[in-house]
Amino acid sequence: MTTLADAATDGAATPRIDRLGVVIAILMAVALALPFVTFRATRIAAGNGLRLFDALPPTAAAAVGAVLIAALVTAVANRRPSLRLALGALALVALALGAGAAGTHLTPADSPYARIAPGSGFWVGLFAGAILMTDAMVRLKLGPVGRLIALAVTVALVAGLLASGAWSHLSLIAEYRSRADVFWREAINHVILAGGSLAAAVVIGLPLGVVAYQLRAIRDPLINVLNIIQTIPSMALFGILIAPLGWVAANVPGAHAIGIRGIGTAPAFLALFLYSLLPMVANTVVGLNGVSRAVVDAARGMGLTVFQRLLQVEMPLALPVVLTGIRIVLVQNIGLATVAALIGGGGFGVFLFQGLGQTATDLILLGALPPVALAFAAAVVLDAAIEISGRGKA
Amino acid sequence: MIDLSHLTKVYGDTAVVDDVNMHVEAGTITVIVGTSGSGKSTLLRMVNRLVEPTKGRILVQGRDVLKMPAYELRRSIGYAIQSHGLFPHWTVARNIATVPMLLGWDRKKVAARVEELMELFQLDHAQFAGRYPHELSGGQQQRVGVARAMAAKPALLLMDEPFGALDPIIRGKAQADLKAIQRRTGTTILLVTHDMDEAIHLGDRIAVMDAGQLKQYAPAADILARPADAFVDDLIGTADRPFHYLTLGTLGSAVEPGEADGAPLAASASLYEGLGALLWSGRKAAPVIGDDGAPLGRVSLSGITDRAAQPR
Amino acid sequence: MIRPGLLLRLVVFTALIAFLAMPDRFAGLLAPLTDNGAPAIYNQGSLVSLTLSHLFTVALATSAATIVAVGLAIFVTRPAGAEFLALSRAAVNIGQTFPPVAVLALSVPAMGFGEGPTRLALFLYGLLPIFENSLVGLSTLPPAVVESASAMGMTGRQRLLKVELPLAMPLIIEGIRLSAVIGLATATIGSTVAAKGLGEVIVAGLQSNNLAFVVQGGVITGILAVLISDGFQILARRTSKRRGASPQASRPATDGQQAPV
Ligand SMILES: Nc1ncnc2c1ncn2[C@@H]1O[C@H](COP(=O)(O)OP(=O)(O)OP(=O)(O)O)[C@@H](O)[C@H]1O
Ligand SMILES: [Mg+2]
Prior knowledge:
The structure holds 3 protein chains of 3 kinds. By secondary structure, chain A is mainly alpha-helical. Chain A has helices at about 5-10, 20-35, 50-55, 60-75, 80-105, 120-140, 145-165, 170-175, 180-215, 215-230, 235-250, 265-290, 295-300, 305-340, 350-360, 360-390, and strands spanning about 35-40, 50, 115-120. The longest helix of chain A has about 35 residues, at about 180-215. Chain A is flat, with a radius of gyration of 25 Å. In chain B, about 40% of the residues lie in helices and about 25% in strands. Chain C has one domain (about 5-250): MetI-like fold. Chain C has 10 helices and no strands. Chain C has helices at about 5-20, 25-30, 45-75, 85-95, 100-110, 115-140, 145-150, 155-190, 200-205, 210-240. In chain C, helix 4 (about 85-95) crosses helix 6 (about 115-140), helix 7 (about 145-150) packs across helix 8 (about 155-190) and helix 8 (about 155-190) packs antiparallel against helix 10 (about 210-240). Chains in contact: A-C, B-C. At the A-C interface, helix 1, helix 6, helix 10, helix 11 and helix 12 of A face helix 4, helix 5, helix 8, helix 9 and helix 10 of C. The complex binds adenosine-5'-triphosphate and magnesium ion (MG). The site of adenosine-5'-triphosphate has 11 residues of chain B, from helix 1. Magnesium ion (MG) binds near residues 40 and 41 of chain B.
């Protein structure tokens, strides 16, 4: 799988210009030409696009523009990954600060209802800067620790930005401010849904995977059934589970008392748990299958019991594959928990679907961006864990 | 047939093929030997331009290959490799038909050619034509690979360790078959191996490569008798050299008048085989008969061993 | 001999067709799920036409995604596009951490309500598994086979069409299967942005507290997804069987292999 990449980097034929850089530069130029922010007189009024120089005071606009142009030039003319990474990051920071400053600059003192939101130019610029950074990181071949540090720095920067109040005049933050309590409540809901169902899947799925590994007879049927469950759309599964859980709530003594209802968290939790079983079971089986026969034989030869062998030899060696299963489950559950709001299960989906219902873009963003960020962060962290746990075992 | 002049391939800053000059006669088998990484495959693959030379010229039948479209050149040159590279999604017949189809032969002609080749390579048409490569044994896959390389009757056949993956018995047979087929068709063959036995057995001429350079290029007997330098000497192996040398001559060349007891030996057998037969049967001499069974005289142990000494 | 699994699927498929053709006959079955004499069968539109437009949306987006994604995968595996290979891999990995529902929601501000954002989201998200699988398929071909194709004198185009694409086909089909399954699910959620589809039935049920609607919508989409997924799996197995590739039994789930939406 690496043959092509290697061929590309063996430097036999260095192309004259960096064509990826050209694409990034074009995107950056488009970003500069498009409206930097949109201005709306009220929350749901039609938007009015403002270019960089209309949105910011001249010096600030010039500063943001200069950074973006520097990134554009670097993309085409400089191949040093570290420099490209720095300018990509700088461009993102400039865009973020610029958008915040535009919010402050444009908000009329007498009209608190006016909304300023990042415009298409901002988003395209963000995209271009992100590609520039991603490409640089790919070329730098950042190790797992490096990627974790990069993530931590990003989180710290965004947190600092939010805490500093630099964005407080942007509509997304206004939207957040007016429902901060609910936001955090639903955030916790979301994390509990995604993390709790993952925990349940690990507790049940790991042993189930070990059993399926030992007993050929149940392996294929089990995996087939789990495969079919995975195929069912979440909305459908959420819906289908309402009926039996409603019945349980009404007919099983005590079920209602511990929070089981036809709609709400219970069916969502159950559905996420069911979805999580396939990656857990399949990856446990495959991970254990992948442990070399010679190692297992050696362990047996040294007199380890089945149980000791499993805990001391097979499981540690299967760990990277099992962790891959956990990564899949976590990323998938963070996304799926968003849909749970449709059946009253809470989570960020509450804002997302409310926003869709009210055609309020900012509310949609408030509901959509946190799960995206969470899923991305979870993926980075677990990928790093997988890589570290796999060291010296390949 | 092939003329290489100042042929060079540079990767990074090492020349993996370094200023090689070589002329290959039409209708012969030329074997390139050398240690792993010495540039044999690279040299071979420049001939059909799977690797583009950094410097130098390659003439095949008088035409400069660098001035032809690569695909056209390759259709006129057969190519077979160790891992055979059969197309797994095509049947044996379709695989063999690859180049004739690319050349736009008509269907009947292609079918006839496929049948002819399968017979030549001892693959039963009825049984194997419709099979997929994974349904064949390694030796059969390998034969299909060579048959495919020869399908469009190329005047030149390039082979990169074609028998490397075969067990010793099958390999010996495959070598003998290849030699027989080559003698029949007159195809020019350029073959890469790192097995000195194979080189001496098959090669009309042998080219020895080391670190990208052509160390010696001569008939097998010359290489054995007069290795150009310590490297070639090493490659042959001091202990094996007389025995290698004996594989080149036939018993017919060592016949002396007289008689001997015991089972007769064939004049066409190699001196090496004759020596083995004498040693094993504990005789000092044995009668020799010709192809027709007529007695020709005898060979003696000393007559054979004299021929194992380094010529002066 | 018909295997029991196949038989079961045939029965389920027949039942689905029967239900869509004459849903009222099944009203008795669903009635226990309703309260106060609410209708048991969705009555705000024809189930058949909702099913068809649902499938049409998915088919449209998936076909477009297939063309673009396979095209891109071909491009980045040619020498001319090799520069973009590493980045495109990273981009797909990142893209697949985006929840499809978020992609759907975010395309509303860009496209407004209705069919548009659903199709855009389906298309964008559908690109990822197809691109990833095609890329793996095209870049992990046995080197000896690919080289043989060149050595036989195939032009780049002949090699691609006669050797590389056919050999990568099982993986490409697997990518299309994933994309279609994800698309089917995302299209269900698309009803919340006013796209015509089976999600409407579920949403209507949730809004009016009519469990019968929820269940029938859920079951129809669930069955469709399973059957479509099976269909692609059979196709993929057909294309890989001949060449002796082992059937892909219980391999590990990796990124984008299978993800409910
Ligand atoms: N595409 C390439 N890029 C860089 N170096 C290469 C490439 N192909 C071959 N080489 C190098 O060129 C040298 C010669 O390789 P070549 O394949 O010709 O060796 P060989 O004599 O055929 O060896 P073997 O007997 O192991 O097949 C080796 O050191 C190899 O690493
Ligand atoms: Mg070689």
